[in-house]
Amino acid sequence: MKVERIRQIAQLKQVMRRWRALSLRRRLVEDPPPGFLAVYVGDDRRRFVIPARFLNLPVFAALLQRAEEEYGFPGSAAGGLALPCDPAFFGCVLDALHLDEARFRNLPLDAFLALFADRGRAASSSPCRDSSSYNSFSPLLPKAKAR
């Protein structure tokens, strides 16, 4: 009986060591690589990792201005940068920039809104990850209290 108890304690210690090692490894994976940063988009704070150079683009300047108006700075309560827009729309912006940054880099927010509103009507040609959500298109979230 006593031997079995010791064996259980030893197994529990092994499980705790593995869990600790995995949680430390998971934290390291969650950190964005150098030159990138994590932003949190939408009400559910969906996480995107973007190149830091994107922050200089007009579309991100407009989104950051809206974030400042809505949330104030610094970003979300979790310490990340929160952007008040639809995650599907944000994914479309990132897809466009990744596909052809030279072409889309100077577009302001309004141009992206118009571009993806039109593409939402022709879903088959849309590079958006979730084009079905654009039938009732509202890419920017209404003002809400910050969490």
List the helices and strands and how they pair.
Blueprint: H1 2-30, E1 36-41, E2 46-51, H2 58-71, E3 81-83, H3 87-99, H4 101-104, H5 109-121
Parallel strand pairs: 1-3
Antiparallel strand pairs: 1-2
Which of globular, elongated, flat, extended, rod-shaped describes the shape? elongated
What is the multimeric organization of the chains shown?
A: single chain
Q: Cα-atom Rg, whole angstroms?
A: 21 Å
Global mean pLDDT: 75
Largest sheet: 3 strands, mixed
CATH class descriptor name of the largest domain: Alpha Beta
In percent terms, what proportion of residues is strand?
Answer: 5-15%
CATH T-level topology of the largest domain: Potassium Channel Kv1.1, Chain A
Query: How many distinct helices?
Result: 5
Low-confidence stretches: 121-138
Strand order of the largest sheet: 2-1-3
- Based on secondary structure, the structural category is mainly alpha
Q: Which second-level CATH architecture of the largest domain applies?
A: 2-Layer Sandwich
Domain module count: 2
Tell me roughly what share of residues is in helical segments: 40-55%
Distance between the termini: 52 Å
What string, H for helix and E for strand, traces the elements in order? Answer: HEEHEHHH
Number of strands: 3
Pfam families: Auxin_inducible
Family: Belongs to the ARG7 family.
InterPro entries: SAUR_fam
Can you offer a commentary on this structure?
With 147 residues, the protein is mainly alpha-helical. The protein has two domains: 1-31; 36-134, Potassium Channel Kv1.1, Chain A. It has helices at residues 2-30, 58-71, 87-99, 101-104, 109-121, and strands at residues 36-41, 46-51, 81-83. The protein has a three-stranded mixed sheet. Strand 1 (36-41) and strand 2 form a beta hairpin. The longest helix has 29 residues, at 2-30. The radius of gyration is 21 Å and the shape is elongated. Mean pLDDT is 75; it is low at 121-138.
